[in-house]
Amino acid sequence: MASIMAAKIRAKRVAQLIAGGKRLDGRELNDYREIQIESGLIERAEGSARVRLGKTEVLVGVKIASGEPFLDTPNEGVLTVNAELVPLASPTFEAGPPDENSIELARVVDRGIRESKTIATEDLVVEAGKKVFIVFVDVYVLNHDGNLIDASALAALAALLNTKMFNYEVKEGEVKIKPGYKPLPINNHPIAVTFAKINDKLVVDPWLEEEQVMEARLTMTIEKDGKVCAMQKGGYGVFTTEQILEAGKIAQQKATELRKLVVKE
Amino acid sequence: MSQKKPEKLIDEKDIRFDSRKLNEMRPVKIEVGILGNADGSAYIEQGKNRILAGVYGPREIHPKHQALPDRAALRCRYHMAPFSVQERKSPAPSRRELEISKVMREALEPSVFTEYYPRTAIDLFVEVLQADGGTRCAGITVASLALADAGIPMRDLVSACAAGKVEGRIVLDLSDVEDKSSDGADMPVAYMPSLNAVTLLQMDGMLTPDEFEQALNMAVEGCKQIGQVQKEALRAKYLTAKEAATETEEEAEEEAKE
Amino acid sequence: MPIFHEKRQLVTPGDLLAENDYLNGENTYKENGKIYATRVGLFDHDDKRIFVVALKSFYIPMVGDTVIGKVLELMLSGWIVDIRAPYVAVLRASDALERPVRPQRDDLPALFDVGDMMIAKIVAYDRTRDPLLTVLERGLGKVARGQTIEITPTKIPRVIGKKGSMITTIKNETGCQVIIGQNGRIVIAGKTPEDERLAIMAIRLVEQEAHTTGLTDRVTEMLRKEKGDKPGKEVAENVPKET
Fold first, then answer.
1. Does the pLDDT of residue C57 top 80, yes or no?
2. Which runs of consecutive H residues, i.e. helices, occur in chain C?
3. What is the pTM of this model?
4. Other C-beta atoms within 10 Å of C129: how many?
5. Which of A167, A247, C37, C39 could cysteine-pair with C54, CB 3.0–4.6 Å?
6. Which CATH number belongs to the domain containing residue C212 in this structure?
7. A96 touching C, CB under 8 A?
């Protein structure tokens, strides 16, 4: 039964604790859960990574194929991000075409990568107007225990950093793969930081129970120089401008911490 | 990454391109109970295959008209991740995935005591994270374990393995490149070892009656081997709990003596 | 009359346990004179029966069981309740109110709203319909405060203990009220969240080490240690992860 709706007394307990500055799982308001990142586990894919954020588990695979550019951007390759909320990840996920949640997840992850110009799409052109490379970033949620956005964005970045671009030559207008490969050039390291608003307090990295009682959520994606490159508010509640600016400060700090886990200097 | 196609798949000494003997299976690794939300789950790596299975149930069935009055409805979804194959695959289910979903369900149904839970659903989800031939067999193997991990009563575990013909020889557990070779045959089989019952049998290609018998026997032997690995995986998961408990018991006895 | 395993040996579904003259008990089935296991568990037997103590199973409703349920939906004259079983349960208004129900006047959500937890009893259940609940007996009703946790239903007898020894120990050492549902849900209501945390720790310990002996003593020891040498602030850091 899709009954992961929080019990009322549990919801009250979660909110009470947070009002007092504590969370049910012992974390501080600004703490992330334990994070594990593993790269390169799907050899078939050009790049891959799996992130475990607490019990949330997301796998991202990157595939590169050749194709036609979009009509309005003949000199650019294509980046496309897709997310699958597969049914085994949660009793509330159903098989079928992407619903609004999986579409929002994909688009927020996409925005972070695209707006920060993480991939230089001009470098993906084989023949202007005719042939370009398409980078497919496929987000596969394997277990949903809250904060799919941050886990997916982190896994997407790790997967892109792991991505190898094959060597190629163009023969008779077709792209022919040659042996050898080089890393896909990655120009930025966007990190998404998501907050939940519960009882007028902001908590970082909400887990499933907190998501079930939150009034609203706010995601901020910070690129490597500290600029904000994407934002998304979700949920039926509201944020004050002070809360948003406060979140911005915390996001800067958190993004720097998380970035160290993915990007080895 | 692109795969180099070897010139010959099997040499004159009957050694296959990946150094296996004709009746040798790819290395298999299985883990049980690895997903947090699913009632039961299991994960397999067989050669380059990486497949995950999760089970929810028995649970209320939706839509209600799919309910069966006298037993649980076993529903199975076999699905491949877009990055699991050489050419990126669209996430939308293909006709192949739909057919495999059906035969997988029919391979597992005989093993489950569905009659104990009328009007409910047992939902099985098999996700192929990386494919290299024989995914429906590996999928059945791991789905059966997910059912056991969920505590759903079963007559037996279902073990699956394929046999076939490659370059004129009967071989066990074909990888993708062997499967795609011309003039061959691929025959997936699922089997309940304790009951000597075959629950899945399909074939494409061409085999003489003798070749067919040889391949069937080889596949069943392969299934039995897989069955051992399945049991070990279940023991590994549940024995650690038992061992930890026994260790504490012994410690307590030691302390009591002091 | 051969038996193929030793007591407490781990068996898996389809394992051949015994032949011929035995009766097949819990978590086994018989076919052609042979008895096989249906679940992963520990093998056991007595003179007449072969059975398996399952290491994992789910709750099947039984008439007379006390269960902890969560309201999923409001109906015109009752509630649909999740009792952590393959079937949802139904609580009719007539089994929640002492007097006849007046649908236009009575405010059902005031009694139980969506998301509320309740302690209820199963009054009816068979293969053709969902289990029926009542809250009209003593000790039943809405859970007003405290926390609920979920454990594997097979471990419930261990949490209760012989003649209630384990649950009494936990109640005494933590000062909490502990209400046990046969469906694997437990309500813990203490004077402080810290007391509740201790009770939860104790129950999780029992769940993990259910098949050992001397457990009651170990639980007492653990609780006393936790209470004893951790004053005030330090306790917060040890709050266990809620699952």
1. yes
2. 108-111, 156-160, 165-174, 193-208, 215-228, 234-237
3. 0.86
4. 11
5. C39
6. 3.30.1370.10
7. no
Q: Is any Cβ of chain A less than 8 angstroms from the Cβ of C76?
A: no
Place of tokens 């209820």: C120
Q: Tell me, yes or no, whether A17 lies in a domain.
A: no
Tell me the two tokens of residue A212: 């079930």
| CATH, residue A110 | 3.30.230.70
- Among A4, A5, A9, A55, the strongest candidate for a mutation testing the C interface, having the largest count of C CBs within 10 A, is A9
Interface contact B151-C208, CB threshold 8 A: no
Band of pLDDT at residue C213, cut at 50, 70 and 90: confident
Poorest-pLDDT segment among A45-49, A177-181, C226-230: C226-230
Dihedral sign of CA atoms C181, C182, C186, C190 in order: positive
Nearest Cα of chain B lies from the Cα of C221 at a distance, in angstroms, of 11
Is A234 part of a structural domain of the chain? yes
Per-residue pLDDT tens for B109-133? 999 999 999 999 999 999 999 999 9
- The domain in which residue A60 lies consists of 25-262
Same-domain check for residues C156 and C227: yes
Please tell me what DSSP assigns to residue C3: B
B28-235 has which fold? Answer: Ribosomal Protein S5; domain 2 (3.30.230)
List chain B domain ranges. 28-235
